[in-house]
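Field reference: sequence -> structure
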Amino acid sequence: MSQISELSDDLLVKILLFLPTKVAVSTSVLSKQWKFLWMWSPKLDFDDYRDINHTKKSSLLMYRYENLALHRAPILESLVLKFRFKSENIKQWVGIAVSRRVRELSISYLYVWDVNSQVLLPCSLYSCTSLVTLKLEGKNILVDVPPTVCLPSLKTLQLLRVTYSNEDSLSLLLSYCPVLEALSIDRGYYDNMRVLVVDVPSLRCLSLNINSECSSDDGCVIVTPSLKSFYVVDTTSKCSYLVEPMPDLEEANIFVKQNPEKLLVSITSVKRLSLRVDFNSKEDPGYDAGIVFNQLEHLKLCIINDYWSKLLVRLLKDSSKLRVLNLDASVSFY
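Structure field:
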């Protein structure tokens, strides 16, 4: 231990980066030299999901949260906050991260004991010029986007089962992310948005997960002309799609309960396609036989009845570049 303590503080901080934040904070009790070293770490990960006694915070937990305001690193590369108990300080901690020019911010707040408890994030988050990656998870997190929103560096955005303050919150947020490349949206029971609108010219990867419990039934509007990767899981039977063509699409994974034609028409330039449809109707769906996948090279299909099989033959008969075909006769996908 004495030999390690002889190292410079800068080197010791680099060593702490290899440790979980909880362990790094615990080193503060070793000596006066170690007391504040963790506060210089540019990466912090506070995970309360693993706290067995969620009704009472440990003294160490209180220590590290109370001292977060004293964090000394001029630039915070990454901050991960995971909560499963009610906290009044999330807004303050996010504000601190923004003031430290945070680059990666992840907030997961799953306070299941109070469905009406909402976390309002600071307005400064939506104008953080340094932010590159943002993840918000949990129905208690309220996405309330101010008119002054501007995220010029944001490239990756994940919105997982969050609540929106109004119908225009998501569209407003996306419209001021000029370099956004990857977007993940997970819609669940508490989703209060009627129509999902994704209009992002710069987007390259889009992932949509629409749970069967989602209350919305007004569909999705997708305008992503630069998209390379498209992933959709839709376990509802009511969601409709209005999708603009994706001429640069390379890979698509489409898992829907029924009616995939709106999606198929928009991804005819795809090279690799995985398609699963839980279609149990005894009637021929009668989709447009003119859908042709001119660039398709790799295809994986999940087939559950003869009608769907015949439809796929019609849709794919002109795929001249097809080299790999994988058929899966699974009965259920969900």
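Note: The chain has a mean pLDDT of 78.
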